[in-house]
Each structure stands twice: as structure tokens, then as C-alpha cells.
Amino acid sequence: MISKTLEKALNDQITHEFYSEYLYLAMASYCDSIDLGGFANWFISQAEEEHQHAMKLFKYVQDREGHVELGAIEKPEHNYNDITDLFEKVLQHEQKVTQSINDIYEMAVKEKDYPTQVELEWFIKEQVEEEKQVSDILKQLKWVKDNPALLFMLDQKLGERTPGSLPAAE
Predict the structure, then answer these.
(1) What average pLDDT does the segment 89-106 reach?
(2) Domain count, the chain
(3) 37: CATH
(4) What is the rounded (10 degree) CA torsion for 161, 163, 165, 168?
(5) Can you give the pTM of this predicted structure?
(6) Residue numbers of the domain that contains 146
């Protein structure tokens, strides 16, 4: 059985993961509106991955005889200066998610809740991958600058991402 403190923290994280899904769908819409369909595709795949993360935590709370309480999801930002600005916001968002997961892990350590520590280790590793992937795209965008041909090539590359190419939420 999970403590009420950890149950609340995990419920909050479930809401954060669903917010991430919602945010990335809004970002996909922005990309589509500026004719970057490959970027839009990348964000749709990312949104699906965030949904998987939320459901992984949802099931974990239930498996530990906890009660899942879903929180309200706020309206995501939808205006950006350009695609680089958008990815800077994505990196900031992922860093906040990482900090939230780390805080819950620290709470699990203090409570000596070993199953939650083990469960969160997957998320900690996932966040390293998330931040690296976004950071790499951001670096590529800065290299591209105002070169439409290079932006087109990057858009095409990101358009190759499919939900099936995502790492499975074990």
C-alpha cells in the first residue's frame, strides 16, 4: 500500500503527464499552422508518449492500492515567436517534469518506499532521454538559423517519427 503523501504526489504527476500530452498537441497545432508538418508529427508522437507515461503511473497507483484522482489540466500556451522559441519552451517544460519526478523519488527514499523508487527509476532514465532529444533538436535548429532548405530537411527528418518508434512504457 502506498502512503497518502506519495499517492498525492503521484496523482499530481499523472496530471502533469496529461498536461504534457495536451501541451504537445497544442504545439503540434502551432507547427502545422506554420507549415512544419514534420515537426507537428513529432509533437503528436510525443503527446502519445506522454499519455503512455500518465497511464503507467495511473496503473502503478492502482496496483499499490492507491486512489487515482485526476487534477484539472490548464490551457497550454499556443503562441510562439518561432520554432526555436517553441523548442526552448519544450526544454524548459521537460526540465520541470524531471525536477518533479526527482522530487517524488526523493520523497520515496525518505519514506523507504522501495517499490516507488524502482518505478520512478524508469521515469528518471526516460527524462534523461527526453531532455537529450529536445536539446539535440534545439541545437540543430540553431545551426539551421534562417536557412529554409535546412529547416525543410529537419522537418522531413522529424516527420519520420512514428508512435511505434517510441520506447515502450514498460
Answers:
(1) 98
(2) 1
(3) 1.20.1260.10
(4) 150
(5) 0.91
(6) 4-165
